[in-house]
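Justification of resources, computational component.

The compute hours requested in this renewal are based largely on the per-chain cost of generating structure records like the one below. Each record pairs the submitted sequence with a full structure-token output. That output is archived, and it is also reused by downstream analysis tasks.
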Amino acid sequence: MRHGIHTFVAGLGLRHGGMARFRILHRRMIAVTHPDLLRHILLTRHERYERSFHYRTTRATVGLGLLTTDGDYWKMRRRQIQPAFRPEQVQRVVPATHRATEELFARWEVRRRAGETVSIVSDMQTLTLTVMCRALLSVGIDSAEARVFGAAVSESLYAVRRKNNSLCPMPRRVPDRHNRTLRGIRGVLDRFVIQHLQPRLAPGAEPRADIAQGLLDARDPETGEALPWQSILDETKTLFIAGFETTATVLAWALHRLSHEAEVAARWHAEVDRVLGGRAPEWADLPRLAYTTQIVNGTMRLYPPVYNMGRECQADDELGGCRIQKGETLLLSICGAHRTPEFWPEPERFDPARFGPDRVWTKHAFLPFALGKHQCIGNTFAVAEATLALAQIGQRYRLRPTAGLDVPIRAQVTLVPANEIPVRLEART
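The structure output for this chain reads:
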């Protein structure tokens, strides 16, 4: 489990009909993979299952945000923040993605003309972090700052996973190795967000049309009170971590697969040529970039941004004919759900056409952004960003893989490539 938690939990559930109890020393858990059982937990009986200790660990870096809370506090916060994701705010992803991708192309062209490969894992991190900075805070970011912040986020996700998998995790107040690492990372994230956000609280500061402004303007619909400063800080960090690393990982895996799948890449190029005709993509183009969106979905099925979700049973329940007792911890495997042969024939095959308009696929068997009340608030933003970036890249380049390169999967909080992926570029125009 320590070396492959994503495959361990998924494999256990898939081998035993979609659900299996297991124990690691003193910890008793239940692996759940079957989509119907996940639907029961996340939708039908969601009030009986709250987020597990795994999410509480994440508070060490992002504080009390939508990602780390549950119950009445979470409901109140979600209600307050929802207006920040109005359609006009989400559509800011279009100019932010276009500009960040053009800046990426300027760097890529230098390497292409020199006959060098590009590094798509780190490049996609820089791209998505730049998009988040502009859409969330209306600020730019240089490559050095992006590397520092990106490294801190990646390290925080890895540190959270290590602590969650520790057999004897220490309380946060104990200065052991895990807690010292998490506190140091929190300091990096706090400093980055505060330097860009705090000046906007000064008297006479001009409001900006971005997502952070939605947080600053948010009011409780019952009391009319604004969000406290610490809450604004925590939610901004949460949005950065949830929206930057996950989308970067999806884009890196998508480009990796496109460099190997000639037929898929050909359909991708044909669609962006037909829909865009050489111009920049716009929000209205997204429904017509259907196959490009299918590539995003196909990538998230094989490499779900979040592969496991922890839930703790709050009241006795029955699940798949088995009794679930109050206090039991369930690990919900999105990897397992996305590889259940009953719903996904040939589950290991990369096939974006599975999500085509002529295909019927079960909605609750595909849950890269979870399901029910905790469905990711930024899912529309993330899919739009990935689709727009892929469309621009497909306009400009053909991707060629590095021969003999093995790219294993490493489970952090997301499923990331275990090493850098060098890709060779060929200009299409």
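The mean pLDDT is 88. The first strand starts at residue 19 and ends at 24.
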